[in-house]
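User: My collaborator sent over this chain with a note saying "see what the structure looks like." That's all I know about it. Can you take a look?
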Amino acid sequence: LESASEVMRRRIDLFGINEPKLRTVVYGDRYQMVIELAGLEQTDAALQLIGQTAQLQFRTFDDSNPEATISAVAYFESFQPTELTGDLLDRAQVQFDPNTNEPVVSLQFDSRGAKLFGQLTEENVGQPLGIFLDNQPLTLPMVNEPIYGGQAVITGQYGLEEAKLLAAQLNAGALPVSISIVEQNTIEPSLGQASLNQSLRAGLIGLVLVAIFMVALYGTPGFLAVVGLIGYGIITLALYKLIPVTVTLPGIAGLLLSIGMAVDSNILSFERIKEELREGKPGA
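Assistant: Without extra context I'll predict from the sequence alone. Here is the result:
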């Protein structure tokens, strides 16, 4: 499930959606993913892309294309598909190089995959071997020597998290599972707007109640603190507009929370000034 979710995240990123949400759910023996995509216009294309089974391919490099050295697109297009696919990969896992103690990703092929992999590495020594998932390059390791036996290791400057992610993506392409849409719901903009209006209304009511409480309890310092918080809110919203910042419901909640957190510091500051004025301290 975790491997499949990594593939879904890669596919969702192709649509450039702000703050996509993906969570995994287990109901008894059923494994599901819940995906929320806000502001998506290409609904049919997204459903088609999400519903596909991950396709992992091992491709060899064709150096006959002269543009491969000057164009990244031409370089990736120079990798030609082979018969070695993710169906022949038993598993990928993270290990540590005993000499350098750096994370590496080990591959284990089945019997047919081991034979094909041995042939590919024998014919492409000194050339990169492209590993593509959903036609997107995952990694392009160099073939240093022929590799037989069905076991290989991908080395490189990988951090532990990068190595784990690569192993998860390789396993996702190796799993012979089909992904199907169980349920689809579309929330109309009117419902989203209603939720936004209700959230804003609730936030303003909460701020007004806090302001009344501060003035009633602290008097003049409370009133000055409210004025300061209003100025803080205006400056923050102005910055949101100038940068600009996309304001979502979690962002609104964060703004309201920051104003609430500022209440304490404002009250402490004005209460201290009030006490100093009362005691007649110089500089107050």
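A starting point for your reply to your collaborator: The two ends are 63 Å apart (CA to CA).
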